[in-house]
Amino acid sequence: MKIPHFSNITFLALFSLAFSQQNQAEPYAFSSEISALKAKSVAHELEIAKLLSGPDLQPTDYNVSSRTPPEPLKEQNPATEVPPAPYLPVPEFYDAKEGDAPVENDISEIEQEIAPVASGDVNDKGLDLNTSTNSDQNQGLISVGDIIIQRHNGYYFGPLLGIFIPDNGAVRDASIGKIPYDSETGYLLGLQFGKDFGTIRWEVEYSHKGFDGQGTSNLYEIGTHDFLNRILLEKEIGDLIDFRAGLGMGVGFISLEGNQDYSGESFIYDFILGASYRLRQNLNLSVDYRYFLTGAEDEYDRLKSHIFTVSANFDL
Q1: Which of 57-61, 115-119, 253-257 shows the lowest per-residue confidence on average (mean pLDDT)?
Q2: 3-class DSSP state for residue 279?
């Protein structure tokens, strides 16, 4: 019980000692603060006295001086002077002498040359628009009256018909041998499709040919279904007319019907020679002569024929 009592006494002694030391230090701290405040006040008074001893401030002049007007801008690109119109000398007239040709013809020729200009039938380059020029023809433009036709390079198709004039032929019978017949004039109907490359044409054609043959005792009805591939070469011989020649090759399905049927498939070809005429912008009419041949088979002799055809081709 004595030990706690002794500790309390010791704590009170230490607290009183620390408090007494703090009270003794407070007067020294307060006096130092007063001294610092006085020093700042003296420095402030010196600064104010320095400012008041300086020269008086001059008032500001707010009057704006008048500005000088800017100089006018000079033209960067002065306008070029237009030269005066050329002087046209007055023509001199001389008295006609005896033996000189009259000038009336010369005046009439000049009036004829001026007439298209006066009527307004010229373009901005001074060219007469009523007549076709050589440059237009070189470009494929052809003027026919009021219609301008242009040569077409491209695809086309059209029908054809013709007269089939065959040579006499014969059929072959295994027991009898050859049976000749006399051929009569027949017909050709077909359809063709092709492309024009300018001076060369390529065509494919289907055609049906039919004619009759009179034998010794029988009448034969002869028909062919032909598929041809053809190459044509063309040469211009006029503004609207072309001369052409070509060769066609293909296969034909041939039938000869009488008291007995004879049929087969043969290699066929023809030679063509003709001309074409352009009627309209997209219509071309051709007239051709063909020499037609087939290969011989076991049941019939080869067919030979002269053909005259007319075809109309429509440009696509």
Answers
A1: 115-119
A2: strand
As given in the structure block, the two tokens for residue 123 are 């373009």
Q: Are 167 and 198 contacting, i.e. CB atoms less than 8 angstroms apart?
A: no
Distance CA 281, CA 155 (A): 14
Q: What is the pLDDT of residues 204-246, one digit of tens each?
A: 999 999 999 998 888 999 999 999 999 999 999 888 899 999 9
Q: Please give the pLDDT value at position 210.
A: 96
HSE-CB of 172 using CA atoms within 13 angstroms:
10
**What are the structure tokens assigned to 260, written together?**
């007995």
Whether domain 155-315 has CATH 2.40.160.20: the reply is yes
Global confidence as pTM:
0.54
- Reference 246, options 194, 307, 200, 305; nearest CA is 200
Nearest to 185 by CA among 168, 199, 165, 200: 165
Q: What does the CA dihedral 301, 307, 311, 316 come to, rounded to 10 degrees? A: 40
CA–CA dist 131, 141 (Å, integer):
12
Cα three-residue angle 75-77-82, rounded to 5 degrees:
110
